[in-house]
Amino acid sequence: MIFIRFAVIISLLILLFNNNLIFVKDFFRSSLNAKNEIEGLRLENDSLKTELYISENLSGKDIKEGKWEYFSTKVFSSYPFNNQNLISIANSEISGIKKDQVVAAAPGVLLGQVMNTNKNIALVRTIFDKEFIAAVKIGESKINALLKGGVPPTLEMIEKNKDIKNGEIVYNTDQNFPYGFKLGEVQIDENKNTDTAGLFKKASLKTNYNLSSLEDVLIIINFEAFPPR
After folding, report:
1. Domain 133-206 in CATH: superfamily?
2. pTM of whole model > 0.85?
């Protein structure tokens, strides 16, 4: 009799554990999906804000008309080993991805540039790679800065007499990428706001997306850097 009661208790505990395990799995799955959806909405909103910013603040008919043509391709997963600097994307004979093509996280949002390709895979250097570098401007005042890749990327060579603020848009002015593409926003660290020599201001670059969550990226097919690198 005691053995039967013990067996019933064990069975009930196992059933309870399995039900709780299912609940936990469903909870985390739902949380992950919600997180990805939120990041997707933020990136879409980022793209729309960038388009509006370009049309209001940057001159040039071709920029305002949105002349860039994109095609979408998949990002190979490297979870949990993504060090947030290089990513690999799906290539094929049909897509024909080429070296030096520009890669965007969303329309108007610069992510990086194709480094190498074969018939199946293309390797992309992102703005989070320490070898990435680009000339940029900050905000409506069009303050010059140099973007250096990293985690996070940094904005350097900012003149000390220039006033920069958190949240100001950082956009590309480097000839190797489309003019006016957004890279992110200014994030100031009060404890690290000058270079080691104290000659220039510096800040971090904040992006509104998580690189490890990107499942698709956009290749710009009608932009060519001049001169080619």
Report:
1. Rod shape-determining protein MreC, domain 2 (2.40.10.350)
2. no
